[in-house]
Amino acid sequence: AQSVAQPEDQVNVAEGNPLTVKCTYSVSGNPYLFWYVQYPNRGLQFLLKYITGDNLVKGSYGFEAEFNKSQTSFHLKKPSALVSDSALYFCATYKWEYSTLTFGKGTMLLVSP
Amino acid sequence: GAGVSQSPSNKVTEKGKDVELRCDPISGHTALYWYRQSLGQGLEFLIYFQGNSAPDKSGLPSDRFSAERTGGSVSTLTIQRTQQEDSAVYLCASSRRDRVSTEAFFGQGTRLTVV
User: Fold this and answer.
1) Residue range B36-64: average pLDDT?
2) Chain A residues in contact with chain B using a Cβ-Cβ cutoff of 8 Å
3) Residues A33-59: pLDDT tens digits?
4) What's the helix, strand, coil split of chain A in %, to 5?
5) Most B CBs within 10 Å: which of A99, A102, A105, as the mutation test of the B interface?
6) Each residue's pLDDT tens digit, B78-100
7) Residue B82 to residues A78, A86, B47, Cα–Cα distance (Å)
8) Which domains does chain B have, with CATH numbers?
């Protein structure tokens, strides 16, 4: 079965500091990996995806993620956090042969001024 | 439409009543998903439709839950004899689900409160 894990319920970072939100995956073969963000009282928004190619993927709002096959990880990163980045972040995986988009349980990112 | 539309945005219902939640996906998207997000919980997969194929109902929590998708477009999620534990935000998403574009686009959700 395909799955992703987000080991941290919450990440706290000060504005201006780099941030990392962790995600590991368990998928046989080559996975499709995604990051979504959910701002308060809003739906989920797509941030970025890895399908194939460069291991470093750049997405919306200055976020990027690094696909690491040996560590089966797809951590979300941003060089300099903003207070407005505070939100709930979900990692997800999708495999062509399967029907469902499987999400992690989410990580709350809190950026303090 | 420009995005995935869900209605109603909020629904309060009495325990034991039936409810219907509607999802209007992005035009041309063949894949449609329903998820449930409970307070403090992640996203729980409910059901998946892809084109004219039989839906994947493996995530439906009980036989009180059902969904249909008419004409490959609009979908309705029905919960019969609602229980308090059904209270959650129900999210719908659609995607093209092809080799080029696989990301899903989500609606704003329907917040269901069973009292």
Assistant:
1) 88
2) 32, 34, 36, 42-46, 49, 51, 90, 94, 96, 99-106
3) 999 999 987 789 999 999 888 899 999
4) 5, 50, 45
5) A99
6) 999 999 999 999 999 998 866 55
7) 42, 34, 18
8) 13-114 (2.60.40.10)
pLDDT at B47: 92
Beta strands in chain A (DSSP E): 3-5, 10-14, 19-21, 24-26, 32-38, 44-50, 56-58, 64-68, 73-78, 87-94, 102-103, 107-112
What are the beta bridge partners of residue A97? Answer: none
Contact B45 A100 (CB under 8 A): yes
DSSP B18-61: -EEEEEE--TT--EEEEEEE-TT--EEEEEEEETTSPPB-TT--
Q: From CA A16, how far away is CA A13, in angstroms rounded?
A: 9
pLDDT of residue B98: 63
**CB-based contact B23:B47 (threshold 8 Å):** no
Chain B residues near residue A49 by CB distance under 8 angstroms: 102-103
Q: Which domains does chain A have, with CATH numbers?
A: 3-112 (2.60.40.10)
